[in-house]
């Protein structure tokens, strides 16, 4: 009973451990890499900046509103800002201003900046799409490398298992005196070589897993593994399509081509903006000002004083003048002064550029050079794409032929090995020749695996340039 309980516990623990190890599919690897790649995250930030630039461009069409206020203390002879009277005193004044400005005509710069900001958003999106495609291709390459190393390890272990059986049988024949000891030593050397190959295959498999895990930015290298899937040669008609047809199709969706085209349009917009700086600008403005004095003020008391200023010569009557009597009162209420002392100004301002040290003209020339540079970059991008597609198409054709040749070679090596084994079993072949036949079979099996995954990857690259997603393997 105890033995059964312990066995169940061990099986449960083994199941839990195996359940915790995630087996990644190619699609999961591609999606995770795209989501967590640092370069793509940086590109997403660039896209956010482009959206902010668009908001700036929209804001250029809106009026600009500014407000200002000040409070000052003046000591000595100064002018009262509300009455204009000069007097010697310590005074306080408060003033405020609100101004509004709007561009009526600015050489179409605002319109062109808005168009440029929209093109810049598209350019950043194309750049991000291009990065995603490149990362997907790199992930697919790393994924297939793991599958290749895993299948190669399986083959190496299977070959070693066969060698172990031959070693056991040879040892029995040597002990019975049927075969010389040299044959045993030769088989043992072959087994040792295969053990080394198994170790190398295990190391290659582990390193390929680490490499893909690093590409995915995973920290747990040891538990990372891909799904147990046996990929066969996919059925695809992509090699029947001419490179020219693939190239024409790729021009319609490739991110690098669209990015280059968008850069040309952005450069053309920069040229229009530069030309706009050489045109007159018309701006409308409106301003509202008010001021407040915090000083005491003189006010009439309603009383007058009479002062004789002379006499009438004919009658002798006195000539007097009446002068109003003023008293001192505090300043008017703050709010009342705001409305009593306010003022408005409005109008239009015309600015005509006449000479600015060749700065505007040289900016136009630089923009024209930049347009030509981006046009050349677009032409080079298309040329590179066409050359790459032709190379990839040739590589896929060559890889398929190599795979077919490797398949035929393996069939021949298997027949040769079977014939050699039959001769070795009846003593008509020595162990050295038999080991050579087995080594040739091992090499043919390894070469077939390499050719298989090399063809699968190059086929996927060709489909990638035709617009078929990499993860659809």
Automatic annotation (TrEMBL):
<dbReference type="GO" id="GO:1990281">
    <property type="term" value="C:efflux pump complex"/>
</dbReference>
<keyword id="KW-0813">Transport</keyword>
<dbReference type="InterPro" id="IPR003423">
    <property type="entry name" value="OMP_efflux"/>
</dbReference>
<keyword id="KW-1134">Transmembrane beta strand</keyword>
<dbReference type="GO" id="GO:0009279">
    <property type="term" value="C:cell outer membrane"/>
</dbReference>
<dbReference type="GO" id="GO:0015562">
    <property type="term" value="F:efflux transmembrane transporter activity"/>
</dbReference>
<keyword id="KW-0998">Cell outer membrane</keyword>
<dbReference type="GO" id="GO:0015288">
    <property type="term" value="F:porin activity"/>
</dbReference>
<dbReference type="InterPro" id="IPR051906">
    <property type="entry name" value="TolC-like"/>
</dbReference>
<keyword id="KW-0732">Signal</keyword>
<keyword id="KW-0472">Membrane</keyword>
<protein>
    <submittedName>
        <fullName>Outer membrane efflux protein</fullName>
    </submittedName>
</protein>
<dbReference type="Pfam" id="PF02321">
    <property type="entry name" value="OEP"/>
</dbReference>
<feature type="signal peptide">
    <location>
        <begin position="1"/>
        <end position="19"/>
    </location>
</feature>
<keyword id="KW-0812">Transmembrane</keyword>
<comment type="similarity">
    <text>Belongs to the outer membrane factor (OMF) (TC 1.B.17) family.</text>
</comment>
């Amino acid at each position: 009973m105890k033995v059964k309980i312990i066995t169940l516990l061990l099986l449960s623990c083994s199941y839990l451990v195996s359940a915790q190890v995630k087996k990644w599919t190619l699609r999961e690897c591609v999606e995770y890499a795209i989501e967590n790649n640092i370069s793509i995250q940086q590109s997403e930030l660039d896209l956010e900046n482009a959206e902010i630039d668009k908001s700036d461009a929209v804001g250029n069409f809106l009026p600009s509103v500014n407000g200002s206020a000040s409070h000052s203390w003046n000591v000595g002879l100064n002018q009262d800002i509300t009455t204009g009277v000069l007097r010697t005193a310590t005074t306080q004044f408060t003033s405020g201003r609100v101004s509004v400005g709007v561009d009526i005509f600015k050489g179409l710069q605002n319109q062109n900046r808005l168009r440029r900001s929209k093109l810049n958003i598209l350019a950043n999106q194309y750049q991000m799409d291009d990065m995603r495609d490149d990362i997907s291709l790199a992930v697919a390459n790393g994924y297939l490398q793991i599958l290749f190393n895993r299948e190669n390890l399986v083959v190496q272990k299977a070959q070693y298992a066969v060698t172990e059986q031959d070693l056991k049988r040879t040892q029995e024949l040597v002990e019975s005196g049927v075969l010389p000891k040299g044959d045993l030593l030769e088989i043992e050397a072959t087994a040792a070589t295969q053990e080394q190959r198994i170790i190398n295959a295990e190391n290659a498999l582990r390193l390929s897993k680490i490499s893909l895990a690093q590409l995915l930015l995973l920290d747990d290298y040891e538990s990372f593994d891909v799904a147990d899937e046996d990929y066969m040669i996919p059925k695809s008609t992509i090699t029947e399509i001419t490179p020219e047809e693939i190239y024409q199709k790729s021009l319609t969706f490739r991110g690098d081509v669209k990015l280059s085209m968008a850069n040309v349009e952005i450069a053309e917009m920069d040229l229009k903006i530069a030309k706009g700086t050489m045109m007159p600008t018309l701006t409308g403005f409106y301003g509202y000002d008010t001021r407040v004095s915090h000083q005491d003020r003189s006010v009439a008391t309603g009383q007058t004083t009479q002062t004789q200023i002379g006499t009438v010569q004919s009658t002798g009557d006195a000539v007097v003048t009446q002068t109003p009597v003023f008293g001192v009162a505090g300043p008017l209420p703050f709010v009342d002064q705001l409305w009593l002392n306010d003022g408005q100004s409005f109008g239009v301002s015309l600015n005509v550029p006449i000479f600015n040290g060749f700065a505007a003209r040289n900016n136009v020339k630089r923009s024209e050079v930049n347009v030509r540079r981006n046009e050349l970059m677009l032409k080079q991008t298309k040329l590179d794409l066409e050359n790459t597609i032709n190379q990839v198409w040739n590589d896929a054709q060559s890889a398929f032929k190599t795979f077919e040749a490797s398949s035929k070679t393996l069939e021949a090596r298997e027949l040769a090995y079977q014939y050699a084994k039959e001769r070795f079993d009846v003593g008509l072949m020595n162990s050295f020749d038999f080991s050579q036949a087995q080594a040739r079979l091992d090499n043919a099996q390894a070469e077939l695996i390499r050719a298989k995954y090399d063809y699968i990857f190059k086929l996927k690259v060709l489909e990638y340039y035709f617009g078929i997603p990499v993860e659809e393997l």
